[in-house]
Design goal:
Shape: elongated
Strand order of the largest sheet: 1-2
Oligomer: single chain
Radius of gyration: 14 Å
Structural class: mainly alpha
């Protein structure tokens, strides 16, 4: 079994921004780096969510927002991992 040790916080029912996802991942990476552990980052995906017509304040709307935030944050997260030598 493999677990994660870094989270993006993208399951927050209140919703998250791309900046919050990035900050949580960067903060988590710093913690596992101090412990000399290999980072395993947990982020959630969501295919075709942008086609769903829902209220932004509904639970499903927050879910969609969180998935969009992950997609928006990914380029910066990948760049951070590359800088740390964790991604190719």
């Amino acid at each position: 079994m493999v677990g994660w040790n870094v989270i993006g916080g993208d399951s927050d029912p209140q919703g998250v921004t791309p900046e919050q996802v990035y900050y949580k991942v960067a903060h988590g990476l710093a913690k596992v780096e101090k412990l000399k552990l290999a980072p395993i980052v947990l982020l959630h995906d969501g295919a075709q969510l942008s086609t769903i017509d829902v209220s932004p304040d509904s639970a499903i709307g927050k879910y969609v927002q969180n998935r969009e935030s992950v997609v928006s944050a990914l380029p910066r997260i990948i760049e951070l991992l590359k800088q740390k030598g964790e991604a190719e």
